[in-house]
Amino acid sequence: MRVSKSLLFDLEFISRATGLSKNDWVRYRLAEIIKSGKEDLLTVLEKDFIKGRKSAAEFKEIAGFFPGNELHSQRGVYSEKCTSLLNNPESEKFARNAIRAILKADKKKK
pTM of this prediction? Predict the structure, then answer.
């Protein structure tokens, strides 16, 4: 891998300060970054599955495994919560008022 001279200088400093070889330090840091990025993306994928934005097949295609029973139960709870909100008259009134406010704001812009 090609890197700039300033980056090589920084790696030399880190190597002297930590006692680790440059390659070992880079491998270790790269592994940490990849693991953290993977965990963040998996969390987003799980949330998308729970909210119904991704199917189990899409989840498996991306993650390499099917969502577990816990994710399926969380998806069911989320679905029930959304359904109960739709059947609640207070929610319907809130939604109507929000839509009216949006329409008024759009009219004022024009």
Answer: 0.70
